[in-house]
Design a protein that fits this description.
mainly alpha; two-stranded antiparallel sheet; 2 helices; 63% helix
């Protein structure tokens, strides 16, 4: 799987893996491969979500005087 896959594509593949594992039509080796791929995708998706949450928190921060704090996070956006 490419590192450049979008979050949506990773989630779709993860759903496919879950469905395949639920069917249980695979041998132990193939099941293990699917499980490992699913765990990797799960960690990658969590990292993406954590990064987005951090960026949202930068925008939604409030100081002690109840003023909205915003930061320019354009530099944080990965190409």
């Amino acid at each position: 799987m490419s590192k450049d896959q979008t979050f949506e594509k990773k989630i779709k593949r993860l759903e496919e893996i879950v469905n395949q594992l639920e069917e249980g039509d695979y041998g132990i080796e193939e099941t293990l491969k699917l499980f490992q791929e699913g765990m990797k995708l799960s960690k990658e998706c969590k990292k993406i979500l954590d990064d987005v949450e951090l960026r949202v928190n930068k925008v939604l921060g409030v100081d002690e005087d109840e003023n909205v704090i915003t930061e320019n996070f354009d530099d944080d956006i990965q190409s």
